[in-house]
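Review box. Two proteins, two foldings.
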Amino acid sequence: MARLTDLSDELIVEIISYLTPHQRASFMNGQPFYHWPEQLDKHNEAIMASIQDLQALSTACRRLYLIATEALYDYIPLSSNAERSEKLISTLDNNEDLTVYVRCVDVDVKRYGGMLQFTSLFWLPNVHTISIRGFDLWEPWEWEDDAHVGASPVQVLRLLECGAHEKPLTQMLSFPKALRELWYEVNQVEWDGHYGDNDAPGFTCAAVERAMANQVGSLEKVVFTRPTPDHEGIGYEDQLDVRQYERLKVLHVNQVFLTSLEPDVPVWEHLPKSLEELEVYYDDMGHIKILEDDADRPDWLFGMLERMAKPDEKGVRGDFTPLLERVRIISLEWHPEMYEESEEEEDDEEDENAAPATAGEPDVEIDESRGVGHPGSTWLPPRELIQKFIRAGVSFSIFLHGQRRYRYTVEGGRGFQDKWEDVLEELGE
């Protein structure tokens, strides 16, 4: 039998390609967006075995080292390992020849988040995606000039457990020349406390908007979330306003940042006309709810759908978010332990859902074949809300605790490609 080293370089490269770790977008499938940071860590841990196999192969002989090195550094999955992240950055700083191979890198900078050293990742010549965990700098870095602004090729940036304040956050978001995708998982607690004898500024969405301003002409996707809060009522200061982001197609956002405490905030005035997909997560069931009996009517949602259904003076669909195709609402209300109702109560809910359309609006037919709920439940969202979506031409999905879930694809519409709500049993907190 031929030895591996007897094979041609081309065949060895082909064999190595099966061991080469790649960050696949599929790691996000099957989970709501606010679970993606956790999924990223699980994904990275799962492929470390491939990394170890490649490392073993690369030490066999110099020829295999030279062939395997490119694959070994193509994707570096260290999003949950601060010590190895530090060693990696030092290795790249001292071995310039390796930097050309790095295209995707996930690091944990909790141990040295205030140091300039890790920012060198942004200027690796072929880097495309960077994930940074634990960036919590309060004061800005000092630069000799602005040569670093707009000089990075990074197109996807993920900031996990990010407690950095406005000025350092602004600096980091100014590095990429044209950022297409931003994940921002904010650690709001880091914005509180004291600067010496002075109070810290406190977190606001306005500060994040100012920090993102350098990428207003390029961002196509924004994921704006936070870790599960320790107690209710955190961070209801203001609302996110991204109306100026004319390329933004996808927005996944926690409700606290979209509407704050106001159920009737004019969200439609804060969204860009380019938006195609909106996903909203209610993570504070003790403070804000959407469909529970004592919840305020979500006028932000009804108002947006009503304005989409109303043609403008040219007869074009909607004067706000005219390209919106799908909306997903996720809420922590209806915990499993609260979900103990009789068949009679479910029948009562069905009767409520059968209420007529809003006064002054024609009734809209609901095609049951287009709707999918939990196979063990007959629960439906309020009929008025379903009709608003249909009238606006927007497909939707609503996922609550227990078996309360329902998605509907309007005629000619495009729903969500990842239908995780069909298989996920319960929401994790």
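Next protein.
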Amino acid sequence: MASDDVFYNSERDAEVYPSVLPIELVLRVLQHLPKQEKAITAKLVNRAARTAFQDYTTVPANSPELPLWALQAHYALQPFGARGLTARAAVGDPAALQWLRVQDPPCAWDSSACGSAACFGCLEVLQWLRSQDPPCPWSSEACNMAAMKGHVEVLQWLAAQNPPWSWNWNKCSSAAAGAGHLQAASGGHLAVLQWARSQDPPCPWDWMTCRDAASRGRLETLQWLRAQDLPCPWNESTCTEAARGGHLSVLQWARSQDPPCPWDLESCRQAAEERHPEVLQWLSLQ
């Protein structure tokens, strides 16, 4: 079993002390702890507490829910690899990241740590990872993950760093469209594609961007893509993916445009295979 998969088990890893309080009071105190704290603290008290909280007895050593003190206790017994550090980056836990990296030897890291921080919008963590000497590795996946989750401020920072990789902007814009980041303008998600298209030169897009929006049923996204001065291109795959996903309103809108979105028999086949009778019925009437 890989070290990343080893569970922190306080019954094995720490001495169990008897409680000096009545068990009723102990259980009442434990009830007020966060779930991740219950998972470990109960086993440090006594057998009765362990029994009462038997559903909260172990936490994976690389889990982002593992408290820092428990992570430190486990790491002293059996260090783990990059997955543990990546989990902390995902939840924006700079204290744990800093502690893991000052160990001797430092906890390993790879580009997935930056990708995780970008995915969850943890810009400060991402900046810290890249400010180290040497910096944490990164890749274009950080851009794609930030776009998929609608974190425009992360995208802006990444672009300003002049990263060494060749940015796959098509994948970036498709990720944003597929995740429907135009449907929640009040949450700032509209800014993702707007920002990408406002760059000089603009973020490229292609038929895959419309396809990915249609595949998730993102009608508002698709409408915005096609309403631009130079509309995002589309082809038969837009209708095919809408039919595959059972997104009848998307399919109807695409075909109502002037000129209509192209389609072919694949739309019927996909609607039948995925068992969308309402889509298939509408297609048969066209």
